[in-house]
């Protein structure tokens, strides 16, 4: 294909098509790899989340207990819990708080022209 004879508009149109195809193939490869990894984990009697050590992230957070007055000497500086605001469209175990650098799956989602609000999750608190 000789692209030197294409107009700027045609080149941009081609670029858009190439980028979309790259994203599509990348997504397909990721899905296939995820399925293969899940199958391999199942063959060993585990889930993929167990292998990756993410089972704790999926467990519901217990309701906070009533505060009991404790001596100030034992007071530990704890980070406030992070609130997951966005969930991965295909794997709800993966989330993003909306702070810091965007994960690649969010960048890919936005590059497809999809709104970020479609990824919005119910308020879920996770330990930071």
UniProtKB/TrEMBL annotation:
Identify the residues that the record assigns to the DNA-binding protein H-NS-like C-terminal domain, covering every copy: 76-121
Q: Which domain of life is it from?
A: Bacteria
What does UniProt give as GO cellular component? cytosol; nucleoid; protein-DNA complex
Where in the cell? Cytoplasm, Nucleoid
* Gene3D superfamilies (alphabetical): Histone-like protein H-NS, C-terminal domain
One Pfam family of this protein, by short name?
Answer: Histone_HNS
Concerning SMART domains, the annotation shows: HNS (SM00528)
Which GO molecular function entries does the Swiss-Prot or TrEMBL record give?
bent DNA binding; DNA-binding transcription repressor activity; minor groove of adenine-thymine-rich DNA binding; transcription cis-regulatory region binding
State the UniProt keywords alphabetically: Cytoplasm, DNA-binding
- Could you say which protein family the record assigns here? Belongs to the histone-like protein H-NS family.
Protein name according to UniProt: H-NS histone family protein
């Amino acid at each position: 294909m000789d692209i030197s004879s294409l107009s700027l508009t045609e080149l941009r149109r081609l670029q858009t098509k190439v980028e979309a195809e790259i994203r599509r193939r990348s997504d397909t490869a990721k899905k296939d790899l995820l399925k293969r990894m899940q199958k391999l984990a199942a063959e060993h009697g585990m889930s993929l989340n167990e292998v990756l050590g993410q089972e704790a992230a999926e467990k519901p957070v217990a309701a906070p207990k009533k505060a009991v007055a404790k001596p100030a000497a034992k007071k530990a500086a704890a980070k406030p819990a992070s609130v997951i605001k966005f969930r991965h469209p295909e794997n709800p175990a993966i989330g993003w708080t909306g702070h810091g650098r965007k994960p690649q799956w969010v960048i890919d989602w936005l590059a497809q022209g999809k709104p970020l609000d479609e990824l919005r999750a119910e308020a879920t608190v996770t330990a930071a």
